[in-house]
Amino acid sequence: MLTIEASKETQRPVLRQNSLSGGSFIQDHQQYKPSPPATQTFTDVLRTSNSLLLFNANPVCPDPEKVTDSGIVHSIFDRSPNPLPPGTPKLVATIFYKSSTPIHPHLHPDSSAAAGPGVTLPSPSIPVGSAPTVDIEKLPREPPPPEPEPLDHLYGPFVSQLCLTNFLQIIEALQTPYRRINSSHRCLDEEEQPRVVEVTVSPLPNPEYLSYDDLRKHESIWRFEREWNVEVVLQMESVFRHYKRLAVFDMDSTLIQNEVIDEIAKFAGVEAEVASITARAMNGELDFSASLKARVGLLKGVPADVFEKLKSIIAISPGALELCKALKALGYRLAVISGGFQPLAEWLAGELGLDYAFANHLEVDAGTQSLTGKLVPSFPIIDAARKRSLLRSIAAENSIPISQTMAVGDGANDLPMLHEAGLGVAWRAKAKVQLEAPTRLNGESLVDVLYLLGLGDEEIKELTGS
Protein backbone atom coordinates (compact mmCIF):
# COMPACT_ATOMS: atom_id res chain seq x y z
CA MET A 1 0.00 0.00 0.00
CA LEU A 2 1.36 3.41 -0.94
CA THR A 3 1.92 5.93 1.80
CA ILE A 4 2.26 9.67 1.70
CA GLU A 5 5.79 10.87 2.17
CA ALA A 6 6.36 13.19 5.06
CA SER A 7 6.86 16.76 4.05
CA LYS A 8 7.51 19.88 5.95
CA GLU A 9 4.19 21.67 6.54
CA THR A 10 4.02 25.29 5.56
CA GLN A 11 3.33 27.52 8.53
CA ARG A 12 -0.12 29.12 8.21
CA PRO A 13 -0.53 32.85 8.90
CA VAL A 14 -1.38 33.62 12.53
CA LEU A 15 -2.91 36.81 13.86
CA ARG A 16 -0.97 37.98 16.95
CA GLN A 17 -1.84 40.90 19.14
CA ASN A 18 -0.12 41.31 22.52
CA SER A 19 -0.34 37.90 24.19
CA LEU A 20 -3.40 36.71 22.21
CA SER A 21 -3.05 34.45 19.21
CA GLY A 22 -5.38 32.35 17.14
CA GLY A 23 -5.75 30.50 13.87
CA SER A 24 -6.05 32.34 10.61
CA PHE A 25 -9.41 33.66 9.39
CA ILE A 26 -9.39 31.17 6.52
CA GLN A 27 -8.74 28.21 8.81
CA ASP A 28 -11.33 29.37 11.34
CA HIS A 29 -13.96 29.40 8.61
CA GLN A 30 -12.86 26.02 7.28
CA GLN A 31 -12.45 27.00 3.69
CA TYR A 32 -9.15 25.15 3.63
CA LYS A 33 -8.57 21.90 5.48
CA PRO A 34 -5.44 21.02 7.49
CA SER A 35 -2.95 18.68 5.81
CA PRO A 36 -3.49 15.02 6.84
CA PRO A 37 -0.83 13.19 8.90
CA ALA A 38 2.02 11.74 6.83
CA THR A 39 1.39 8.18 8.06
CA GLN A 40 -2.07 7.88 6.49
CA THR A 41 -2.75 5.89 3.35
CA PHE A 42 -4.57 7.28 0.33
CA THR A 43 -7.70 5.39 1.42
CA ASP A 44 -7.52 6.94 4.86
CA VAL A 45 -7.03 10.37 3.36
CA LEU A 46 -10.09 10.01 1.14
CA ARG A 47 -12.20 8.64 4.00
CA THR A 48 -11.07 11.44 6.33
CA SER A 49 -11.55 14.13 3.70
CA ASN A 50 -15.03 12.92 2.86
CA SER A 51 -16.08 12.89 6.49
CA LEU A 52 -14.68 16.38 7.01
CA LEU A 53 -16.45 17.68 3.93
CA LEU A 54 -19.74 16.15 5.03
CA PHE A 55 -19.32 17.53 8.52
CA ASN A 56 -18.54 21.03 7.35
CA ALA A 57 -20.49 21.08 4.11
CA ASN A 58 -22.82 23.94 3.28
CA PRO A 59 -26.37 22.52 3.64
CA VAL A 60 -27.65 24.80 0.84
CA CYS A 61 -26.60 23.74 -2.65
CA PRO A 62 -24.80 26.74 -4.19
CA ASP A 63 -26.16 26.22 -7.68
CA PRO A 64 -29.27 23.98 -7.75
CA GLU A 65 -30.37 22.82 -11.16
CA LYS A 66 -34.02 23.56 -10.55
CA VAL A 67 -36.48 25.02 -8.08
CA THR A 68 -37.86 22.17 -6.01
CA ASP A 69 -40.61 21.82 -3.44
CA SER A 70 -38.25 21.73 -0.50
CA GLY A 71 -40.59 21.60 2.47
CA ILE A 72 -37.77 22.97 4.62
CA VAL A 73 -37.07 26.30 6.26
CA HIS A 74 -34.50 28.41 4.42
CA SER A 75 -32.06 30.74 6.11
CA ILE A 76 -29.05 32.71 4.96
CA PHE A 77 -27.41 31.80 8.27
CA ASP A 78 -25.39 28.64 8.88
CA ARG A 79 -27.04 27.70 12.15
CA SER A 80 -30.45 26.39 13.14
CA PRO A 81 -33.52 28.29 11.90
CA ASN A 82 -34.51 31.40 13.78
CA PRO A 83 -36.80 30.26 16.62
CA LEU A 84 -40.04 32.24 16.61
CA PRO A 85 -42.70 32.30 19.29
CA PRO A 86 -45.92 30.38 18.58
CA GLY A 87 -48.53 32.41 16.72
CA THR A 88 -46.02 34.61 14.89
CA PRO A 89 -47.87 36.07 11.86
CA LYS A 90 -46.80 34.73 8.47
CA LEU A 91 -46.85 36.40 5.09
CA VAL A 92 -47.67 34.38 1.96
CA ALA A 93 -46.40 35.67 -1.37
CA THR A 94 -47.73 34.00 -4.52
CA ILE A 95 -45.36 34.78 -7.39
CA PHE A 96 -46.74 34.47 -10.94
CA TYR A 97 -44.43 34.58 -13.94
CA LYS A 98 -46.05 36.67 -16.70
CA SER A 99 -45.34 34.32 -19.59
CA SER A 100 -47.88 35.97 -21.91
CA THR A 101 -46.54 39.53 -21.57
CA PRO A 102 -42.73 39.66 -21.66
CA ILE A 103 -41.24 43.04 -20.81
CA HIS A 104 -39.05 42.96 -23.92
CA PRO A 105 -40.75 40.74 -26.49
CA HIS A 106 -37.74 40.78 -28.83
CA LEU A 107 -34.54 38.85 -28.51
CA HIS A 108 -32.02 40.54 -26.28
CA PRO A 109 -28.74 41.29 -28.13
CA ASP A 110 -26.69 40.06 -25.16
CA SER A 111 -28.38 36.66 -25.02
CA SER A 112 -28.75 35.75 -28.68
CA ALA A 113 -26.21 35.89 -31.46
CA ALA A 114 -29.08 35.81 -33.92
CA ALA A 115 -30.10 39.29 -32.82
CA GLY A 116 -26.82 40.64 -34.09
CA PRO A 117 -24.99 43.85 -33.23
CA GLY A 118 -26.89 47.08 -33.43
CA VAL A 119 -30.26 45.56 -32.57
CA THR A 120 -31.94 47.84 -30.07
CA LEU A 121 -34.55 47.05 -27.44
CA PRO A 122 -38.02 48.57 -27.65
CA SER A 123 -38.46 51.99 -26.15
CA PRO A 124 -39.43 52.00 -22.46
CA SER A 125 -43.17 51.87 -21.95
CA ILE A 126 -45.40 52.59 -18.99
CA PRO A 127 -46.47 49.26 -17.44
CA VAL A 128 -50.20 48.78 -16.91
CA GLY A 129 -51.12 49.44 -13.30
CA SER A 130 -48.16 51.67 -12.50
CA ALA A 131 -49.83 54.99 -13.39
CA PRO A 132 -53.37 56.30 -13.87
CA THR A 133 -52.73 56.42 -17.60
CA VAL A 134 -50.43 54.75 -20.10
CA ASP A 135 -50.69 57.65 -22.54
CA ILE A 136 -47.27 59.31 -22.74
CA GLU A 137 -48.89 62.55 -23.88
CA LYS A 138 -50.84 62.87 -20.61
CA LEU A 139 -47.81 62.45 -18.35
CA PRO A 140 -45.51 65.24 -17.09
CA ARG A 141 -42.85 66.31 -19.56
CA GLU A 142 -40.01 64.69 -17.67
CA PRO A 143 -37.69 61.95 -18.86
CA PRO A 144 -38.99 58.54 -17.79
CA PRO A 145 -36.95 56.76 -15.11
CA PRO A 146 -34.66 54.04 -16.43
CA GLU A 147 -36.29 50.64 -16.65
CA PRO A 148 -34.75 47.88 -14.52
CA GLU A 149 -32.73 45.33 -16.46
CA PRO A 150 -35.06 42.41 -17.33
CA LEU A 151 -33.53 39.29 -15.81
CA ASP A 152 -35.93 36.59 -16.97
CA HIS A 153 -34.28 36.51 -20.40
CA LEU A 154 -31.01 35.59 -18.66
CA TYR A 155 -32.20 33.14 -16.02
CA GLY A 156 -35.21 31.60 -17.73
CA PRO A 157 -38.85 32.43 -18.52
CA PHE A 158 -40.15 31.07 -15.20
CA VAL A 159 -39.76 31.68 -11.46
CA SER A 160 -36.10 30.75 -11.15
CA GLN A 161 -34.05 29.98 -8.05
CA LEU A 162 -32.28 33.33 -8.32
CA CYS A 163 -35.65 35.07 -8.64
CA LEU A 164 -36.73 33.50 -5.32
CA THR A 165 -33.44 34.42 -3.68
CA ASN A 166 -33.78 38.02 -4.82
CA PHE A 167 -37.31 38.19 -3.41
CA LEU A 168 -36.20 36.89 -0.01
CA GLN A 169 -33.37 39.42 0.07
CA ILE A 170 -35.85 42.22 -0.60
CA ILE A 171 -38.23 41.09 2.16
CA GLU A 172 -35.39 40.74 4.66
CA ALA A 173 -34.06 44.18 3.75
CA LEU A 174 -37.44 45.70 4.71
CA GLN A 175 -37.09 44.57 8.33
CA THR A 176 -36.67 47.72 10.48
CA PRO A 177 -35.11 47.21 12.94
CA TYR A 178 -33.39 44.25 11.33
CA ARG A 179 -34.73 40.81 12.24
CA ARG A 180 -33.87 37.43 10.77
CA ILE A 181 -36.64 35.83 8.71
CA ASN A 182 -37.65 32.24 8.12
CA SER A 183 -39.03 31.23 4.75
CA SER A 184 -40.16 28.23 2.74
CA HIS A 185 -41.64 27.76 -0.71
CA ARG A 186 -43.89 25.49 -2.79
CA CYS A 187 -44.07 25.16 -6.57
CA LEU A 188 -47.80 25.16 -7.32
CA ASP A 189 -47.75 24.09 -10.96
CA GLU A 190 -44.49 22.24 -11.70
CA GLU A 191 -41.03 21.86 -10.22
CA GLU A 192 -38.85 21.98 -13.33
CA GLN A 193 -39.76 25.47 -14.53
CA PRO A 194 -42.53 26.74 -12.26
CA ARG A 195 -44.80 29.57 -13.36
CA VAL A 196 -46.43 29.88 -9.92
CA VAL A 197 -44.50 29.65 -6.65
CA GLU A 198 -45.84 30.25 -3.15
CA VAL A 199 -43.38 31.67 -0.60
CA THR A 200 -44.13 31.82 3.13
CA VAL A 201 -42.16 34.32 5.22
CA SER A 202 -42.14 35.17 8.92
CA PRO A 203 -42.00 37.40 10.83
CA LEU A 204 -43.50 40.38 9.01
CA PRO A 205 -41.77 43.78 9.01
CA ASN A 206 -42.53 45.78 12.13
CA PRO A 207 -45.91 47.49 11.43
CA GLU A 208 -44.71 50.61 13.29
CA TYR A 209 -42.22 51.15 10.47
CA LEU A 210 -43.95 49.46 7.53
CA SER A 211 -47.63 48.55 7.58
CA TYR A 212 -49.02 45.54 5.74
CA ASP A 213 -50.91 47.78 3.28
CA ASP A 214 -47.75 49.77 2.52
CA LEU A 215 -45.75 46.56 2.13
CA ARG A 216 -48.05 45.36 -0.65
CA LYS A 217 -47.35 48.51 -2.65
CA HIS A 218 -43.68 48.91 -1.73
CA GLU A 219 -41.40 50.26 -4.44
CA SER A 220 -38.86 47.46 -3.92
CA ILE A 221 -41.49 44.82 -4.66
CA TRP A 222 -42.72 46.75 -7.69
CA ARG A 223 -39.17 46.92 -9.03
CA PHE A 224 -38.71 43.21 -8.35
CA GLU A 225 -41.81 42.51 -10.43
CA ARG A 226 -40.45 44.57 -13.31
CA GLU A 227 -36.99 42.99 -13.18
CA TRP A 228 -38.22 39.41 -13.16
CA ASN A 229 -41.42 39.90 -15.21
CA VAL A 230 -43.61 38.55 -12.41
CA GLU A 231 -46.61 39.56 -10.31
CA VAL A 232 -46.54 39.22 -6.53
CA VAL A 233 -49.71 38.76 -4.49
CA LEU A 234 -49.22 39.19 -0.72
CA GLN A 235 -51.65 37.71 1.80
CA MET A 236 -51.64 37.13 5.51
CA GLU A 237 -51.51 33.43 6.27
CA SER A 238 -54.61 32.16 8.05
CA VAL A 239 -57.03 29.28 7.86
CA PHE A 240 -59.50 31.56 6.04
CA ARG A 241 -57.00 32.09 3.22
CA HIS A 242 -57.54 28.46 2.26
CA TYR A 243 -61.16 27.96 3.28
CA LYS A 244 -63.45 30.57 1.79
CA ARG A 245 -67.14 29.94 1.16
CA LEU A 246 -68.48 32.74 -1.07
CA ALA A 247 -67.17 34.13 -4.35
CA VAL A 248 -68.75 37.05 -6.22
CA PHE A 249 -67.79 38.18 -9.71
CA ASP A 250 -68.27 41.12 -11.99
CA MET A 251 -69.54 40.07 -15.42
CA ASP A 252 -68.29 42.35 -18.21
CA SER A 253 -64.54 41.95 -18.93
CA THR A 254 -64.30 39.51 -16.00
CA LEU A 255 -66.45 36.40 -16.39
CA ILE A 256 -66.99 37.35 -20.03
CA GLN A 257 -64.63 39.14 -22.40
CA ASN A 258 -67.26 41.54 -23.75
CA GLU A 259 -68.74 44.82 -22.52
CA VAL A 260 -72.43 44.04 -23.02
CA ILE A 261 -73.64 47.61 -23.35
CA ASP A 262 -71.09 48.20 -26.10
CA GLU A 263 -72.40 45.14 -27.95
CA ILE A 264 -75.98 46.42 -27.70
CA ALA A 265 -74.80 49.81 -28.94
CA LYS A 266 -73.67 48.19 -32.19
CA PHE A 267 -77.30 47.39 -32.98
CA ALA A 268 -78.26 51.01 -32.37
CA GLY A 269 -75.33 52.45 -34.33
CA VAL A 270 -74.06 54.42 -31.34
CA GLU A 271 -71.10 52.21 -30.50
CA ALA A 272 -68.50 55.00 -30.44
CA GLU A 273 -70.52 57.24 -28.11
CA VAL A 274 -71.35 54.43 -25.66
CA ALA A 275 -67.82 52.99 -25.66
CA SER A 276 -66.37 56.40 -24.81
CA ILE A 277 -68.69 56.81 -21.82
CA THR A 278 -68.04 53.20 -20.70
CA ALA A 279 -64.26 53.63 -20.72
CA ARG A 280 -64.42 56.84 -18.68
CA ALA A 281 -66.79 55.24 -16.17
CA MET A 282 -64.62 52.13 -15.71
CA ASN A 283 -61.58 54.34 -15.11
CA GLY A 284 -63.47 56.22 -12.41
CA GLU A 285 -63.63 59.47 -14.35
CA LEU A 286 -67.45 59.57 -14.33
CA ASP A 287 -70.13 58.77 -11.78
CA PHE A 288 -71.30 55.27 -12.64
CA SER A 289 -75.04 55.80 -12.15
CA ALA A 290 -75.10 58.97 -14.27
CA SER A 291 -72.98 57.40 -16.98
CA LEU A 292 -75.18 54.28 -17.03
CA LYS A 293 -78.34 56.35 -17.55
CA ALA A 294 -76.61 58.32 -20.31
CA ARG A 295 -75.55 55.14 -22.11
CA VAL A 296 -78.94 53.46 -21.68
CA GLY A 297 -80.59 56.55 -23.13
CA LEU A 298 -78.67 55.99 -26.34
CA LEU A 299 -80.20 52.50 -26.70
CA LYS A 300 -83.78 53.70 -27.17
CA GLY A 301 -85.55 51.77 -29.92
CA VAL A 302 -83.29 48.69 -29.87
CA PRO A 303 -85.42 45.50 -30.22
CA ALA A 304 -85.94 43.75 -26.87
CA ASP A 305 -84.78 40.41 -28.29
CA VAL A 306 -81.26 41.83 -28.62
CA PHE A 307 -80.17 39.77 -25.60
CA GLU A 308 -81.03 36.51 -27.34
CA LYS A 309 -78.93 37.57 -30.31
CA LEU A 310 -76.04 38.55 -28.03
CA LYS A 311 -75.78 35.11 -26.43
CA SER A 312 -74.16 33.73 -29.59
CA ILE A 313 -71.38 36.33 -29.58
CA ILE A 314 -70.64 36.51 -25.84
CA ALA A 315 -67.21 35.00 -25.11
CA ILE A 316 -66.81 33.48 -21.66
CA SER A 317 -63.37 34.34 -20.29
CA PRO A 318 -60.68 31.63 -20.36
CA GLY A 319 -60.68 29.66 -17.12
CA ALA A 320 -64.03 31.00 -15.88
CA LEU A 321 -65.82 27.67 -16.28
CA GLU A 322 -62.98 25.74 -14.60
CA LEU A 323 -62.76 28.27 -11.77
CA CYS A 324 -66.49 28.12 -11.01
CA LYS A 325 -66.52 24.32 -11.28
CA ALA A 326 -63.64 24.01 -8.81
CA LEU A 327 -65.23 26.45 -6.35
CA LYS A 328 -68.60 24.65 -6.53
CA ALA A 329 -66.81 21.35 -5.83
CA LEU A 330 -65.41 22.98 -2.69
CA GLY A 331 -68.91 23.99 -1.56
CA TYR A 332 -68.78 27.71 -2.45
CA ARG A 333 -71.81 29.89 -3.03
CA LEU A 334 -71.24 31.82 -6.28
CA ALA A 335 -72.75 35.08 -7.54
CA VAL A 336 -72.42 37.45 -10.47
CA ILE A 337 -72.99 41.09 -9.49
CA SER A 338 -72.88 43.20 -12.61
CA GLY A 339 -73.41 46.74 -13.76
CA GLY A 340 -74.63 45.10 -16.99
CA PHE A 341 -78.10 43.75 -17.63
CA GLN A 342 -80.21 41.07 -15.98
CA PRO A 343 -81.10 38.84 -18.99
CA LEU A 344 -77.45 38.11 -19.77
CA ALA A 345 -76.46 37.85 -16.10
CA GLU A 346 -79.10 35.14 -15.60
CA TRP A 347 -77.99 33.34 -18.77
CA LEU A 348 -74.36 33.42 -17.62
CA ALA A 349 -75.34 32.12 -14.18
CA GLY A 350 -76.90 29.11 -15.88
CA GLU A 351 -73.83 28.52 -18.04
CA LEU A 352 -71.38 28.65 -15.11
CA GLY A 353 -73.56 27.16 -12.36
CA LEU A 354 -73.80 30.33 -10.28
CA ASP A 355 -76.28 30.63 -7.41
CA TYR A 356 -77.11 34.35 -7.72
CA ALA A 357 -77.35 36.87 -10.55
CA PHE A 358 -77.78 40.59 -9.94
CA ALA A 359 -77.70 43.21 -12.72
CA ASN A 360 -79.59 46.23 -14.03
CA HIS A 361 -83.08 45.95 -15.54
CA LEU A 362 -83.83 47.72 -18.81
CA GLU A 363 -87.36 48.99 -19.40
CA VAL A 364 -89.14 47.48 -22.42
CA ASP A 365 -92.07 49.06 -24.28
CA ALA A 366 -94.76 46.39 -24.25
CA GLY A 367 -96.34 47.67 -27.48
CA THR A 368 -93.24 47.90 -29.68
CA GLN A 369 -91.16 45.30 -27.79
CA SER A 370 -88.20 47.65 -27.87
CA LEU A 371 -86.03 49.33 -25.27
CA THR A 372 -87.32 52.65 -23.98
CA GLY A 373 -83.87 54.01 -23.12
CA LYS A 374 -84.68 53.91 -19.40
CA LEU A 375 -84.02 51.63 -16.43
CA VAL A 376 -86.86 49.95 -14.51
CA PRO A 377 -87.29 52.31 -11.52
CA SER A 378 -88.38 49.58 -9.08
CA PHE A 379 -84.92 47.94 -9.23
CA PRO A 380 -81.92 49.74 -7.71
CA ILE A 381 -78.96 50.54 -9.96
CA ILE A 382 -76.08 48.10 -9.47
CA ASP A 383 -73.37 50.67 -8.78
CA ALA A 384 -70.27 50.45 -6.58
CA ALA A 385 -72.16 50.86 -3.29
CA ARG A 386 -74.83 48.36 -4.32
CA LYS A 387 -72.20 45.76 -5.26
CA ARG A 388 -70.64 46.00 -1.81
CA SER A 389 -74.07 45.85 -0.17
CA LEU A 390 -75.01 42.72 -2.13
CA LEU A 391 -71.74 41.05 -1.12
CA ARG A 392 -72.59 41.69 2.52
CA SER A 393 -76.21 40.55 2.21
CA ILE A 394 -75.39 37.31 0.36
CA ALA A 395 -72.74 36.51 2.97
CA ALA A 396 -75.18 37.23 5.81
CA GLU A 397 -77.93 35.18 4.16
CA ASN A 398 -75.61 32.17 4.09
CA SER A 399 -74.03 32.86 7.53
CA ILE A 400 -70.62 33.39 5.96
CA PRO A 401 -68.12 35.76 7.62
CA ILE A 402 -66.72 38.46 5.35
CA SER A 403 -63.23 37.01 5.92
CA GLN A 404 -64.41 33.90 4.03
CA THR A 405 -65.51 35.81 0.93
CA MET A 406 -63.77 36.52 -2.36
CA ALA A 407 -64.57 39.14 -5.01
CA VAL A 408 -63.20 39.46 -8.56
CA GLY A 409 -63.73 42.45 -10.86
CA ASP A 410 -62.04 44.85 -13.25
CA GLY A 411 -63.71 48.28 -13.02
CA ALA A 412 -63.65 51.27 -10.71
CA ASN A 413 -67.18 50.39 -9.57
CA ASP A 414 -65.77 47.08 -8.27
CA LEU A 415 -63.25 48.66 -5.90
CA PRO A 416 -65.50 48.94 -2.78
CA MET A 417 -66.50 45.29 -3.26
CA LEU A 418 -62.86 44.22 -3.68
CA HIS A 419 -61.81 46.03 -0.51
CA GLU A 420 -64.75 44.62 1.46
CA ALA A 421 -64.12 40.96 0.63
CA GLY A 422 -61.65 38.78 2.45
CA LEU A 423 -59.79 38.46 -0.86
CA GLY A 424 -60.38 41.11 -3.54
CA VAL A 425 -58.81 40.47 -6.94
CA ALA A 426 -58.60 43.04 -9.74
CA TRP A 427 -58.58 40.80 -12.82
CA ARG A 428 -56.91 42.32 -15.91
CA ALA A 429 -58.25 45.60 -14.59
CA LYS A 430 -58.07 49.20 -15.72
CA ALA A 431 -54.84 51.00 -14.75
CA LYS A 432 -56.35 53.07 -11.94
CA VAL A 433 -58.10 50.01 -10.50
CA GLN A 434 -54.84 48.05 -10.43
CA LEU A 435 -53.21 50.83 -8.44
CA GLU A 436 -55.97 50.93 -5.82
CA ALA A 437 -57.10 47.30 -5.61
CA PRO A 438 -55.86 45.11 -2.75
CA THR A 439 -54.72 42.43 -5.20
CA ARG A 440 -54.17 42.39 -8.96
CA LEU A 441 -53.69 39.61 -11.49
CA ASN A 442 -53.10 39.87 -15.23
CA GLY A 443 -52.81 36.25 -16.29
CA GLU A 444 -54.30 34.41 -19.22
CA SER A 445 -56.76 32.25 -17.28
CA LEU A 446 -59.05 32.87 -14.31
CA VAL A 447 -57.80 29.56 -12.92
CA ASP A 448 -54.93 31.64 -11.52
CA VAL A 449 -57.32 32.79 -8.79
CA LEU A 450 -57.27 29.23 -7.37
CA TYR A 451 -53.53 29.47 -6.73
CA LEU A 452 -54.24 32.32 -4.31
CA LEU A 453 -56.15 29.82 -2.15
CA GLY A 454 -53.03 27.66 -1.88
CA LEU A 455 -54.23 25.04 -4.39
CA GLY A 456 -51.71 23.32 -6.64
CA ASP A 457 -52.13 21.94 -10.16
CA GLU A 458 -52.89 18.40 -9.02
CA GLU A 459 -55.62 19.61 -6.67
CA ILE A 460 -57.10 21.88 -9.35
CA LYS A 461 -57.24 18.99 -11.82
CA GLU A 462 -58.99 16.83 -9.24
CA LEU A 463 -61.56 19.55 -8.55
CA THR A 464 -62.27 20.26 -12.21
CA GLY A 465 -62.11 16.63 -13.34
CA SER A 466 -59.60 17.53 -16.06
TrEMBL record:
Pathway terms, separated by semicolons: Amino-acid biosynthesis; L-serine biosynthesis; L-serine from 3-phospho-D-glycerate: step 3/3
Needed co-factor(s): Mg(2+)
InterPro entries: HAD-like_SerB, HAD-like_sf, HAD_sf, PSP
EC number: 3.1.3.3
Molecular functions per Gene Ontology: L-phosphoserine phosphatase activity; magnesium ion binding
Record keyword Metal-binding present: yes
Keywords: Amino-acid biosynthesis, Hydrolase, Magnesium, Metal-binding, Serine biosynthesis
Annotated region described as Disordered, given as residue ranges: 107-150
GO cellular component: cytoplasm
Active site, per annotation: D250 (nucleophile), D252 (proton donor)
A GO biological process held by the record: L-serine biosynthetic process
One protein family per Pfam: HAD
UniProt cross-references to PANTHER family, sorted A to Z: PHOSPHOSERINE PHOSPHATASE (PTHR43344)
UniProt xrefs under NCBIfam families: HAD-SF-IB (TIGR01488), serB (TIGR00338)
Family membership noted in the UniProt record: Belongs to the HAD-like hydrolase superfamily. SerB family.
Name of the featured protein: phosphoserine phosphatase
Organism name: Elaphomyces granulatus
